[in-house]
Amino acid sequence: MIEKTKQFFVDLFWKLVLILVVYGVRTYLLVIYRPKMTFLGESVKSTNLKQPMVIIANHTSMLDPLMVQALFFHNRSIVVAKDQIEDPHFSWALKRFKNVIPCDRFNLDTEWALLAKKELEKGNSVIIFPEGKCRYDGLLNEFKTGFAFLARSTGAPVLSLGIDGIYKLGHRMQIMVDEPEKIERVKGIPSSKHLAERSEYFRQKVWKLKQRALGQMGAILPVSAETPEEIIPEENK
User: Fold this and answer.
1) Is there a domain that residue 66 lies in?
2) Which tens digits make up the pLDDT trace of 126-168?
3) Based on the domain organization, do 77 and 16 belong to the same domain?
4) How is the beta sheet containing 36-39 ordered, strand by strand?
5) Domain range for 84
6) What pLDDT score does 235 carry?
7) Which of 109, 127, 135, 137 is within CB 3.0–4.6 Å of 78 for a Cys-Cys bond?
8) Into how many domains does the chain fold?
9) Beta strands 174-177 and 158-163, pairing class
């Protein structure tokens, strides 16, 4: 009885800590960076989505996942690299968040897709950064096909975001939100090929949104196979 009571108060303590952290971080991001969202489509005009979607975005900063969650604050889950969840710097919080879906990005992992599918069925949108890691030189890494597989298998629309990635005091960051699109099953095309084609399509789409968020138009992103490897600055290694 004493152990159960003790555990109750321990769980309550951590629950209160997480609530303070979540709302504290959200307030900080919204106040300091003052994100401005521009909705380019007709069916989505706010972050209050009428149906669950697969939300994808470019990844230029470790703050991107926090920012997207701060904006799409209700009824959403996020796919997070399993190695980050197990990192002692983050595990104390990430292992306690119910909306975190772990994904092993270094090995074949299908369990995350099953968990993400359940979240969509519950009415929660799923946030995914298809590059799998940050890229700091302005280009985009190859988009992994997991998001396309999830969207195609569930019928959930893909909502593409372009984030300017500028987290600086005094800068109001810009985020472009396009019209959601569905990935339909196609007869006669091998599944892996179809998913790769759709992933590259959305990669180019997110690139254009990012360039628009930066106020830079006309720059061309090479296809993933022709995109050069990133040279990572020392401060980001």
Assistant:
1) yes
2) 999 999 999 999 999 999 999 999 999 999 999 999 999 999 9
3) no
4) 36-39, 174-177, 158-163, 54-57, 125-128, 76-81, 100-103
5) 33-224
6) 60
7) 127
8) 2
9) antiparallel
In a domain, 230, yes or no: no
- Asked if residue 59 and residue 162 are part of one domain, the reply reads yes
Query: With 60 as the cut, is the pLDDT of residue 91 above it?
Result: yes
State if pTM tops 0.85: yes
Q: Are residues 99 and 66 located together in one domain of the fold?
A: yes
How far apart, in Å, do the first and last CA atoms of the chain sit? 49
Non-local (6+) Cβ contacts of 124 within 8 A are 52, 75, 76, 77, 99
Q: How many CB atoms are closer than 10 A to CB 216?
A: 11
- The residue count for the chain: 237
Q: Is it the case that residue 108 has pLDDT exceeding 80?
A: no
Token pair 């500028």: residue: 166
Shared-domain flag, residues 90 and 15: no
One domain for residues 123 and 204: yes
**Has residue 92 been placed in a domain?**
yes
